[in-house]
Every structure is written in structure tokens, then in C-alpha cells.
Amino acid sequence: MIIKKLITSLVLLPFLASTMGAQTKRYEKKIDSIIQAEFGNRAEPGGVFLITQNGKNLYRKAFGKANLELNVNMVPENVFQVGSMTKQFTAVAILMLEQEGKLNVNDPISKYIKDYPNGDKITIHHLLTHTSGIKDFTKMKSLSSIAQKEMKPQEMVDFFKNEPVDFAPGEKFDYNNSGYVVLGYIIELVSGASYEDFITKNIFDKAGMSHSYYASDRKVIPQRAYGYHKKEQGFVNKTVISFSVPFSSGSLMSTVDDMLKWQQALLKNTLLNPAETQKAFQKYKLNNGEEFTYGYGWHLKDINGIPDREHGGSVFGFKSMGVYIPGEDIYVIGFSNCDCHSPTEVTRNIAKATLSEIKTSSKKP
């Protein structure tokens, strides 16, 4: 009887292996087609996409060119500017300082920046959740006057702090880059380190993110993907800005592999204890009791009715998007080196397809 079962198992093994292989190929083909609809031209700037479940790679591919002038193909190891995905790191840095007892998210910002207008009414929590009402510097007409200047964090805060507020703190959710610049300045004031040094030492180094950086156009960064815009006459190199302007709201660089390490560090409480981590991933309420779908540095939405955490980024020449589905431990990250190609919907559609594949596979015997 035992021998009969063993023979049956040995006969079935190749069949199961070929079935699983066919499923894997079908899934890969499906993901390829989703990405190629937006990133299909090999001669253009492209992107990199990574899909993981339980920390293991399901899919990892590069598309298009990392450098048009040198005709260099994109590879999965390329380094991209991540834009507003920087906000995740800024939010976690604030929570790390709270964990150390150096600040409290309910502190008014006047505790740290004495002369900030209405600073006794605006809290760190308001900055983290985009509910502060302060003017977003990216919407100010005078931004072009400083875009290429080297700005100190205090100078950046001074640039927008006296602008009329859009609403009272806690009254509305309105996505706001200025709030995250103020947070970066507070990180420097409280920690005594520069934002760049704090993030490098306390996050990148601890999470093993050895290919992540505070952005620079002067440093030699191995495997850097170059950024592009698309104009009527064709592609042009990205507009040059001083990274001291977006600062802690959008000036970090990374790879898809390093972003997985970031996700794993959050999941395993490498950087924060569970109580502090929970603060980043819970929904909050406005003054009128209405709940909104943003935590600290992440949008809290859903895909096909399944809760997710997501955030994108856009900075001259680059776009990024990351989706994490806690219930299935699925992480999808997409980077683009042209602001003409957006990975936002592509990444969400990949997440939907992956959920569907997992659901189908789980039904099979």
C-alpha cells in the first residue's frame, strides 16, 4: 500500500510541477501585458516593477532605457528618484523620535518653531495627515524664484510660513508638501542631525538599504536612471531643481529591491515598535468627526474591497508608486524615469491581477 502511494506521488509530481510552471508563465505574461501597455517601447525611457508575496519575488523586470544618450537599457537594479514616497520615511522618522521620547505627535509646532504663525494650533499630527491648512509651496507662483537655489530647511519654512492659510487646522484633508518640509525641519531641530544623515543612519543603514540616497545631481550614484520629459519634438533631460526645495517631502532616491527592504523593516518592527507602527497605518478624523483615508505618510485605500496602503511620487523626470496589501502580504512597486509614463494605475492593476491569481490558485486542489 505504501509503495502504491509512493508510485502515485512520483507520477503526480511532474504533472503538478508542469501545472505550476504553466500557471507561473500565464501570470508572468499577464503582468507583462499590463506593464507593456504603458511601458512597451524599448527605445523610450522606461521603468522597473517588482511584485513580492511574503517577502519573496513573484516578478521583477525592467523596461525601456535608463539613459537615452548612451543607449543604456534599464535593469532592475537602477536607482530612481522616488518623489513623494519620501513622505513615508519622514513620517517614520518622526515616529522614531516619538518612540525615543523626543517629541509627541500631538505637540504644537510652536514648541519647536517658536515664531511659526498659528503654530500653537497646528500640531505635528496635522502636518503628518495633510490637515494643517498651511499653504502648499508647490502651488505658489514665486516657487520658480527659489527652484534652483540651495535652501536651508529654515529658509524653506520661511518661504511659505507667512502665506495665508487655506483652512483651520483639522478642518479638511488637503495633500500638502509644505507640511512635510516642516516635519523635516523638526527632525533636524530635535535630533541635532541633518535630515539626510538622520534618514541614512536610522533608516537606510538599519534596514540594509545600501542603494538608497538623499538625491543629488552632483554625486556619482552607481546605476542611476536618468530622468526625462516628453516634448513635441521628443524627449529632453529633466528640469534641474535644487533638492533642498522638496527636501523631506520628496528628495529621496532608491531601488525596487531597497523598497522591499523598507517594507520588510516596517513589517518586522525593525524601526518602530508595534504601537508606533500602528499610528502610521490607521485612519484619522477631521474636526467634524469625518474619517479620511490617510495615515502618516500612506494613503489607506482598498483594491477590490481589500484594504491596502499606497503612495505615489512625482518629481521632474520621475514617477513612482507603491502598493502594499497587508492581508496577503503582497507588495507591488513601480518606478518610471519619465514623467510621461505613470506607474500609478499600472501598479494598482498589477496588484489587482496578483490578488486575482492568488484567489484562483487557492481554489485549486
TrEMBL record:
Keywords: Membrane, Plasmid, Signal. The keyword Membrane applies. It is found in: Membrane. Its main location: membrane. GO terms for cellular component: membrane. Residues 32-340 form the Beta-lactamase-related domain. Residues 1-22 form the signal peptide. The keyword Membrane applies. InterPro entries: AmpC-like (IPR050491), Beta-lactam-related (IPR001466), Beta-lactam/transpept-like (IPR012338). PANTHER family: D-ALANYL-D-ALANINE-CARBOXYPEPTIDASE/ENDOPEPTIDASE AMPH (PTHR46825), PENICILLIN-BINDING PROTEIN 4 (PTHR46825:SF11). This is Beta-lactamase family protein. It comes from Chryseobacterium panacisoli. The lineage of its organism: Bacteria, Pseudomonadati, Bacteroidota, Flavobacteriia, Flavobacteriales.
